[in-house]
Amino acid sequence: MKKILVTGAAGQIGSELTITLRDKYGAENVWAADRKPALTELQPGPFYSLDVRDVSTFNQIVEANHIDTIFHLAALLSTVAEQKPQQAWDVNMNGLINVLKISRIHQCALFFPSSIAAFGMETPPMDTPQDTIQRPTTLYGISKVSGELLCDYYHHRFGVDARGLRYPGLISSKTPPGGGTTDYAVDIFYAAIKSQHYDCFLRADTQLDMMYMPDAIDAAINLMTADSRQLKHRNAFNITAMSFNPQQLAAEIQKHIPEFTIAYHVDPLRQAIADSWPRHMNDSAAKVEWGWQAQFDLPAMVEDMLKNMRSTQ
Ligand code: NAD
Ligand code: AKB
After folding, report:
1. Do both 111 and 248 map to the same domain?
2. How are strands ordered across the β-sheet holding 169-171?
3. Ligand 1 binding pocket includes 183 (Cβ within 6 Å)
4. Which of 51, 84, 246, 272 is 20 to 30 Å apart from 181, CA to CA?
């Protein structure tokens, strides 16, 4: 990785990934791009205003800057995708097809994040295998399975070095999440600090796979720098760090903020999405093929989140 482009760079993952990549590879070698304006944190380095559906501008940016690696993060997440299905399909699929075409032309390596959303009700919810049935019931999940398959296709057919992960819900303190179903696990921290109370939109027992952002960023970079000869799966590696439900997360927060309370006002749309996703994936393929290992479990994540959020409030 010498010249890197991050699409969706103003989002929850992109804002932190871009900064880590700039620390590692030099700010002048990491271009951030988003449809939204640049965040202050991204302003010291190069930034492009880009809609990933605009293939001509996208191609010009890659060509002009001799980009060799693209982290393609621009997408609409699960809840927003259910509210705006046409737009979600357009951004998630046509944006991905554009980046695959451009990667083929300019021989770029490509990172594509899939999700636990790529699974559905018929998938084993516990110890979800790497290779298993994938019949998602959400538009977002359908776009993720299609994306996984397209990345495999561009690798086998055209030799594009496409690699990817199936992320669980990601928890972070820097940039708020952009409209997903696992967002409760971030919102709860803002509420705990501000008002010591949180109204949760999922049921108390809704167990889901989760991960703290530093592990998610490490995973993306470690996969992209792994020896390609060791990769049998390449795209859509299951990775996980912890699995909990809202009640368990609230109990962990109460260890630090004893007066914190939680109530449950279930949103049927988001509950149905969460109920269709796995509880805990098996990530042994990622461990064997490129040495994946999470650093943060639930107690360590909660302690670090509260420390970081208090220092910025
Ligand atoms: P986010 O919503 O926080 O950020 C996405 C960014 O993409 C936003 O800044 C948005 O402005 C930008 N964007 C949207 N449409 C665009 C377009 N047409 N052109 C250019 N930019 C556009 O999302 P995130 O959480 O950072 O997720 C990034 C990627 O990781 C997505 O593909 C998402 O599906 C995947 N993912 C995220 C999680 C998670 O928990 N955050 C879990 C699994 C997978
Ligand atoms: C969402 O909830 O949509 C994302 C995801 C798990 O893909 N956080």
Report:
1. no
2. 169-171, 208-212, 242-244
3. no
4. 51
